[in-house]
Write the C-alpha cells for this entry.
Amino acid sequence: MKMNDTQFRLMKQQLQRVTAFSGNLYQKKYAGIDISAVKTQEDFEALPFTEKEDLRDCYPLGIQAVPDSEIVRIHSSSGTTGTPIIIPYTQKDVEDWAIMFARCYETAGITNTDRIQITPGYGLWTAGIGFQLGAEKLGAMTIPMGPGNTPKQLRMMQDLKSTVLCATSSYALLLAEEIEKQGIGSNIHLKKGVIGSERWDDKMRARIATELGIELYDIYGLTEIYGPGIGINCCRETPMHYWDDYLYIEIIDPQTGKNVPDGETGEIVITTLRKEGAPLIRYRTHDLSRIVPESCSCGLKFPRIDRIIGRSDDMVKVKGVNIYPGQVEDILKNIPGVSSEYQITIDHVSGKDVLILSVEMENGTDTAAAEQAIGTAFKTKVGLGITPKGVAMGSLPRSEKKTTRIFDYRNN
Ligand code: ZN
C-alpha cells in the first residue's frame, strides 16, 4: 500500500528518533545505513526488517527510545519460548493505545451505554488492560473480570446485564457451552463479542454466535505493537479496518521479503508511526493476511486487512506459488462431501514439483467429482495444478495438539 505524505514524514521522524537515542537497538541495526538518504518509499522498503529475535537480543530495555523519566509502564510478551520481550510505554503511548482501542469498540457499534465484561488477563500481558483502557475512553461500564472463575463470570454477566463480552475464542466457546448446559440463556443480555484475533475456524465462530446469540468481531494486535486494538472488523464486512494514522502496514512475500501488490496474501509487516517508548520499523509479525483494496460498505475510510489466515512459518512454496493451510481450508469448506481433514505431500518427481492433496470424503460422496472440484478450485483460486486424492473418513492421522498437515519431501 502506498505510503501517504503524513505517514512518510512520521516514519522519517521515527528513524531519527531511534537512531539518535543512545543504546537503542536501531543504532546497531542501522550502522552503516545513512538514514538521511531515505527519501522515497523504495528507500524505506530497502531498510532491513526487524525480527522478534532482534527484540529478544536487546533484552531487557534495548528497544527503549526515550529517557527513563518518560516511561510510565512496561508490558511483556509471554516468553514461553526463551527470553521475553519487554516493551516500554510513555504516557502518550498509553493514551494513543486507548484512543485506538476506543475506536475499535466504536467500529463494532459499541457505545457508552454498553456494559463490557473483560475476560482476558491483566498484568504484564497487554490484553486485559488494553480492553479496559479503550472501554473507559469510550465511557462504557467496564467489568474487569480477568480470566477464569467461570461461575463468577456467569453471575456477573447475569446480575450486571453485560452486553459485550471480550474474550479469546476458546474462552468464549467455553462460556457459551456452560450457559447452554445450565440453561440460563434467557438471563444473558450479551449482544456483541470482541474476540482476540488468533485464527479460529468458522465452525467455532458459528457455535459461539449461535449459542450466545451475539455478533462477533475480530480484534487485531500484538504486544510488540501496543497490544490488541490496532484493528477490528466493522458491523458490515469481515475484513478488519486498521488505524493507518498510527501504523503503516506492508504485506510482503515471506520468502523474498519483497512487497506484494495490494490484494495479494503475504506477511504483515508493521511500522509504528507515533510510538515513543518503543518504536518499531518494518516489524515482521509472521501473521498472514492481505490488504483488501476495495472500500468498505460501512463508509469508514480506514484501510483494511483480511482476517488472519495463518502464520508465515507454516507456508510452503510450490512451483513459485505460496500455499498456506488457511487457504487450503477455505477451498475445502466450499466443496460438498469433503471434510476439513486433509494432508499435503510435496515431492520433486522427474524434475518437477508435485503436490498431492489427500482429503477425507464423507461416505457416499462421488469421489471423482469431488476430486475434480478440488483440482479446479486450486487452479482458479491459487493458480496451481495439484493432484487431489479422496480418502476414507478417519484414515488420516489426527493429533490432540496441532496436526501437521504439510509434508515436504523435496530436499530429502
Ligand atoms: Zn467497514
Remarks:
- The pocket of zinc ion is lined by residues 234, 236-237, 241, 296, 298, 300 (CB under 6 Å).
- The two ends are 39 Å apart (CA to CA).
- The mean pLDDT is 93.
